[in-house]
Specification:
The protein has 10 helices and 10 strands. The longest helix is centred in the C-terminal third of the chain and has 18 residues. The chain has a 6-stranded mixed β-sheet. Strands 2-1-4-5 form a 4-stranded antiparallel β-sheet, with helices on one face.
């Protein structure tokens, strides 16, 4: 399934849930190596679209291709391979509360059942340190971590299988400005080191400005703008102007 072509391609994707139209005619291409942000108002279907991209639910119509694989045609073995090639950080970290950081990060590696325990231990500690946590944090439970540490632990788990594609759902939500900036710098550094493609959902303008190559705006059940952040901010659409307008928008989009 590897090779040239976009990392993610959505063609005429539509979603209906309980008789309600969530998406219609969504076309989006995420190129390999780029960071693309998906923004939209509450209830616009951002997380639903992410869930469709990773196969947690199925689009009503259209075609979704991820890492060269048409999801509608994927076999069980295709899905197994795909899930090794992407990593997902769900909103809030989604750590198992009764497992330590080490145990959470180890889960994807243990599910492979091809690595010996010593190798798993070494890889887990590498990932924990790579995301800026200390080795001694590995024995802590999620309840003992700060919000920023939970995000980092979730990111370590998402990176456990050394994926090509990283999907992040509101990665800086709930973090204070310092922790948010630190997390954005971490993702940017890892993206460059590991040659990752990143798709993230965010509402944070600073994250958009500091991390993303392009932004896609979800409104009116479809994408109303896709492009570099500065260009999209000029699009004449009510949600776009509300989202990027005001002092926050001006500050985030100012030359750095």
């Amino acid at each position: 399934m590897s090779g040239p072509g976009p990392a993610i391609e959505l063609v005429e994707v539509g979603t209906r849930l309980g008789g309600k139209v969530i998406h219609e005619s969504i076309d989006l291409t995420v190129q390999r190596g780029e960071v693309l942000a998906l923004v939209g108002g509450s209830g616009s279907g951002k997380t639903t679209l992410l869930r469709e991209i990773i196969g947690l639910q199925r689009a009503t119509s259209g075609r979704i291709t991820v890492l060269g694989q048409d999801l509608a045609e994927a076999s069980a073995s295709d899905w197994e391979e795909l899930r090794r090639r992407w990593g997902v950080l769900f909103q809030g970290g989604a750590l198992f509360t009764n497992l330590t950081v080490f145990e959470n990060v180890a889960l994807p590696l243990q599910e492979l059942r091809v690595l010996d325990a010593t190798t798993v231990d070494e890889l887990v500690l590498q990932k924990i340190v790579a995301v800026g946590l200390a080795p001694e944090d590995s024995g802590k439970l999620p309840a003992e971590l700060s919000g920023g540490m939970v995000k980092r632990a979730g990111l370590a788990r998402a990176l456990a299988l050394e994926p090509e594609l990283l999907l992040l759902d509101e990665p800086t939500s709930g973090l204070d400005p310092v922790a948010s900036d630190s997390f954005v710098q971490l993702v940017d550094s890892l993206r460059r080191q590991l040659d990752l493609t990143v798709l993230l959902i965010t509402h944070d303008l600073d994250t958009l400005a500091d991390l993303c190559d392009r932004v896609a705006v979800l409104a009116d059940r479809t994408l109303v703008a896709v492009g570099p952040v500065a260009e999209v901010a000029q699009v004449d659409h009510p949600f776009v102007q509300e989202f990027f307008g005001g002092r926050r928008g001006a500050r985030a989009l100012a030359p750095r």
